[in-house]
Amino acid sequence: xxxxxxxxxxxxxKIEVGYSMASELFSCxxxxxxxxxxxxDVCKKSVxxxxxxxxxxxxxxxxxxxxxxxxxxxxxxxxNHNYAVIEELxxxxxxxxxxxxxxxxxxxxxxxxxxTKLLDSILDxxxxxxxxxxxxxxxxxxxxxxxxxxxxxxxxxxxxxxxxRVSARHQQQCYRSVLDFILTNQHPYDLMADSSKExxxxxxxxxxxCDIISRxxxxxEIYSCIKAIAKKVQDNNHNFNEVARKEIVRLLEVVINKxxxxxxxxxxxxxxxxxxxxxxxLSADRVRxxxxxxxxxxxxxxxxxxxxxxxxxxxxxxxxxEIQLKSGHGIDRPxxxxxALNTLETxxxxxxxxxxxxxxxxxxxxxxxETAKKMIQDALLRNVDTIRKFEIIEIKxxxxxxxxxLQKEFGKSLMKQVERDAHQLDEWGNEAxxxxxxxxxxxxxxxxxxxxxxxxxxxxxWVIISYFRERVRC
Length: 474
Known about the structure:
Layout: H1 2-7, H2 11-25, H3 30-47, H4 54-75, H5 80-91, H6 96-112, H7 116-132, H8 137-154, H9 156-163, H10 168-184, H11 203-213, H12 219-235, H13 242-259, H14 270-278, H15 286-297, H16 306-322, H17 333-345, H18 350-367, H19 369-380, H20 389-406, H21 408-420, H22 427-455, H23 458-473
């Protein structure tokens, strides 16, 4: 590895790869990691003075030094001089925003590794002053959103009080950021996070999440958080005893009855109906569940919005399927999905129909894969007459992403079929296709990185990452 690293022609790549490899190897071979840092340092000194890429190189060095320092945090070596080195490196970064980003990355590493002493120090002496010094309110609030979980875990009472000084929109963004961290254990600076990795929040974390959900205003976001909690508890039932499950249900019922529906967003009971159904995931009493589901199904026809009514039918089908209620329990599952599909077909607006298909295609695929494949393919080849062209492009990209997530080979075969029939597409349709092709290349690279990460092939992984980063910059 040392020999290969020294053979890299580009000085900048040699520095970046050297530090990257060192960060990967630190936990298993501190000596080898030190040698790789030495190779990178020699190169750095030779290009430092006159390189037009000095700032970029320095930023890369700092970022990768932080990655190495995260290894020290995990090992808990107690070597204070390593922290002093990081402090000095970050202090020399000419951009306040880059400094703040660097400290945020270190702070999230401390939070994940439960190093509260170091986390408090970083927030008090570095992140707090840098954040407070930002003069542009919009930029300051954007950083507040990214730093929200750090502030919340340091002092939740102060966090909520401080949020009273910002707009309602930024408050809602911060609540959602904290919830995302609580439920996924991922943060805004973890760009290479493996979203397929299952994370199980503790009972205490879930009760904290229930409190924050009660502060949300959007029906959609309230429902999505309730669904996330219900599924996590259902999928990890052995981690939560009956008393804990009943208390979680009680807390979420309070939220549902207090917050849904919110007339400022949605005037019908659609999300209240499916949120109540989600709580049945936490109950093993199928007879009682079936009775409640039938009661909820009978409320769906009263939903005035056609698109939302179809969506609710699809969500109820998904829930009924996953809590294993069948015809013997008095539930007509196929009819629920038929109602969703039939309602979808009645939508006269192409953009609305494509958008709703994006929302439910995964549900359709699980029950009727061939139907879902045809619907997605037809949607990608459809020319939509609307002034909101960019919105349609994003919907089509999301549909392709869903297809790829459902089955990688299906996503690739779908791309070939769409390319074959691309002559049917108008200018905007071809623009969407071009973006989807780029998305596919990036997805393939990301999948390979995650695969290599799991396999421990450090050098090859970091060569791919350097190429991936270059693509992102371009």
